[in-house]
Amino acid sequence: MSTTIILAYILIVVGIIGWVALVPGGKHVGARFTTAVTVFGGAFLFASCFINLVPHIFLGDDPYRFVTPGIHFKIAASVMVGFLIQLLLEQVTRGVEHGHNHCPCCEEEAEAHEHHHAHLPHPGHCHTGAVHPVTGLLIGLCIHAFLEGMPLVDTDGDIHQGLLYGIVLHNIPIALVLVSLFISNRYGFWRSFLLLTLFAVMTPLGSLCNLFLLPPDETLQSLIMGVVVGILLHVSVNILFDHDHNHFTLPKLLLILIAFVAAYFTPGCPEIYPLF
User: Beta-carbon neighbour count of residue 161 at 10 Å?
Assistant: First the structure.
C-alpha cells in the first residue's frame, strides 16, 4: 500500500476525531461556520459526482474506450439503489449527513409552529438537558461512511481525490453534530473519542475491504461507484435544498460557485483528465 493512500486515510480519520477537543467544557462551533462548511461540502460533492465520478464510471481506466453498452443500464440502476440506500439510512440517522440532527422533539415543535421552527444555533443540542439517541444514529452513519469509502481507491492504486476531499469536507458537520450529541448526553472525553474513532475508521475500512476482499473486476467496481454516486447525490441535493439552508443569500451562492470551481480543478480521476 502506497504512502499516499495511507496519508489519505489519516486525513479522513484526523478530520473527524480532531473535533473531540470540543468535548471538555462542552464547547460548540458557531452555526454560521457549520452551515458554511455544510453548504460548501454539499456543493463540492454534487459537482464532483458529475465532473469526476460519473465520467469515471462510464470511461473506466481507458479514456478512449466506453464500457460494454449492456452495463449502462446496470450502472444507472446502481445509482438508484444508492439513492434508495441513503433514503433508508436517513430514517435512522435523522439527517445528520446534512449537518444537523432532526430530533423528534424538534420535528414536533416544527409541526406545532406550522413549519416555522428553526434549529437553535447548536446542532444536535436543541434542548438543554435533552437526551438524544446515539446508538442507532451511529450505526447508520457507520454504514454510510463504509459504503462511500469503498471506491475511494482504484484497484490500480489511484485515489479519487475529488471523492477524498468531498468526504473530508462532508464529515466536518457530521462530526460537529456527533460531538454536540455527546455533549448533550454528557458523554466523557474518552467515550466520545472512541465513538468518533469508530465512525472515522469506517471510510478507510470500506476502502480496504474493496481493495483486498473484492475482485478487481471493472464492471463490479463501476457498480460500486454507481451506488456511492447515488448516495452522494442524495446527500448533496438534500444539503443544497434543505429547509435549514435554503434561504437564498449572496454568500451562499458564492460558496456554491467556489465549490463548483474547486471540484472542477480537483483531479478526481487522473486517467480521464487528459480529455479536458
Answer: 18
pLDDT in tens, 41-78: 999 999 999 988 888 887 765 544 455 666 778 888 99
- d(CA 93, CA 205) in angstroms, rounded, equals 20
Q: In 3D, which of 32, 12, 4 has the Cα closest to residue 166? A: 12
Residues 6+ apart with CB under 8 A from 31: 121, 122, 123
Residue given cell 483528465 in the structure block:
273
Set of cell numbers at residue 81: 439503489
Beta bridge partners of 159: 153
Number of helices (H) and strands (E) in the chain: give both, helices first: 10, 0
Does the CA dihedral 259-31-149-11 come out positive or negative?
A: positive
The full DSSP string for 8-34 is HHHHHHHHHHGGGGGTTTT----HHHH
Q: Is-contact 234 82, C-beta < 8 A? A: yes
